Amino acid sequence: MITNDNKNLVQWAMDFALKNGCQASKVSLYNGSTTSFEIRDRKIDRLHQASENSLVVQLYVDGRFGSFSTNRLDKNELEKFIRDNIDATRYLAEDKARTLPDASRYYKGGLPDLQLIDPDFDTIQPDVKKDLALQACEEIMGKDERIISASAAYGDEKDFKYMVTSNGFEGETSASSFSLAASVSIKGEGEARPESYWYDSSLYFSDLQKTGIGTKALERVLRKLGQKKIQSGRYDMVVDNMNAARLLSPIMDAIDGAAIQQKSSFLMDKLGKQVVSKKFTLRDEPHLRKAAGARYFDNEGVATRPLSIFKEGVLETYFIDTYRANKMQVAPTISSPSILTMEMGDKNLEGLIAGVGRGILVTGFNGGNCNSTSGDFSYGIEGFFIENGKLARPISEMNVTGNMLQLWNHLVEAGNDPRLTSSWQIPSLLFEGIDFSGL
């Protein structure tokens, strides 16, 4: 954690910058540690442990802006570091849009702890971590003669951040996370070598799923045996909750302030308009306790609040930080989302599949891209052909193509099964009439 001595050092660094030529400054101190154990075919393949202190000093000098970092926290060294970088900033191009936020927008404190860090983090022994990864690998090895290799990984991290600005912000955050993952490859037909994986993650060690990760990965890869293309055509599409966020990502990129300011967004000038299906309602819920992504302030110190992003298909906000707002001469909102939550239906993945006559369940995306300006996309996919509400056969080497706005206008139902361990809590989704190319 960040000690009072280190907090005093951060305050000192900010004051020193102001006394030596800065008109404004923001200083942040990061402190963190990570551990990971990687197992391949029952043997330890990689062990990684690291801890880090990093001081980031942002300098606003004569209408110019520079950001500099160091892990050297000695005052004598920092004096030279700050002076040298103030001089360096003066050589940069003038950019008067670079300012600190208006102080009235800062988080002022006083809200309950979001409980994002496991108090027992430091009590978990290395042997326990290693054994979890070994066990996940053991759940795969020897279970099927077609297995080529199996791997598993345990990881954890905790981090602390303390930040101050010269116009009145002071705040600190802390969080922990744990993960356990397994992957497996097997011999398929001919030269095919299907692969699959499974994982779980949590903020608290006690909440981490510790068994069944390897078993689930093996089940998923065995379902891929016999993958083939099917006929090109227009099919209903179900996307599972492991992959639904991939289709949301271009939408979120398109409402980011950088894309709007650079006029490279297919959602330019769409604020207040219905642009996607009425079945699509998306919110940012930053204050959920014990939830990945929760926070009371963003990376500028600006206070977060629950925010409607899309309401029944109507775009209600862009994510615009102070810099982009100054560039466009518009009001800022918040720099980025915290926890995305989507209005859900009443069916799980199996329920969505059961309602499809002929369609495709997408369980993985393999490459492809989306044009940020037009919204046109093409992604490689794998999954299963759906016939009469049942999974008929595995498919691969197909592409799904179209336009993002058209795709999301074809959303007909959202599931009720988001992965709550993710900061993007997006459930399985059902779209109708989507173009696929195969045979």
What does this entry look like structurally?
The protein is of the alpha+beta class. It contains nine helices and 17 strands. The strands form three sheets. Strands 3-2-1-4-5-6 form a six-stranded antiparallel β-sheet. A hairpin with a 5-residue loop joins β12 and β13. α1 (4-19) packs parallel to α2. The chain is globular. The N and C termini lie far apart (57 Å).
Please outline what is shown here.
With 439 residues, the protein is α+β, with helices and mostly antiparallel strands. It contains nine helices and 17 strands.
How much β-strand is present in the residues?
35-45%
Provide the low-confidence segments as ranges: none
Coarse shape: globular
Number of helices: 9
Intertermini distance: 57 Å
Radius of gyration: 25 Å
- Helix and strand content put the structural class at alpha+beta
**Helix residue percentage:** 10-25%
Strands of the largest sheet, in order across it? 3-2-1-4-5-6
Beta-strand segment tally: 17
The run of helices and strands is HEEEHHEEEHEHHEEEHEHEEEHEEE
Can you lay out the helices and strands and say which pair or pack?
Blueprint: H1 4-19, E1 24-40, E2 43-61, E3 64-70, H2 75-89, H3 126-138, E4 147-165, E5 170-186, E6 195-202, H4 213-222, E7 233-239, H5 244-254, H6 257-261, E8 282-284, E9 307-311, E10 314-315, H7 322-328, E11 340-342, H8 349-354, E12 358-370, E13 376-387, E14 390-403, H9 404-409, E15 411-414, E16 424-425, E17 429-437
Parallel strand pairs: 7-12, 11-16
Antiparallel strand pairs: 1-2, 1-4, 2-3, 4-5, 5-6, 7-17, 8-9, 8-11, 9-10, 12-13, 13-14, 14-17, 15-17
Helix pairs in contact: 1-2
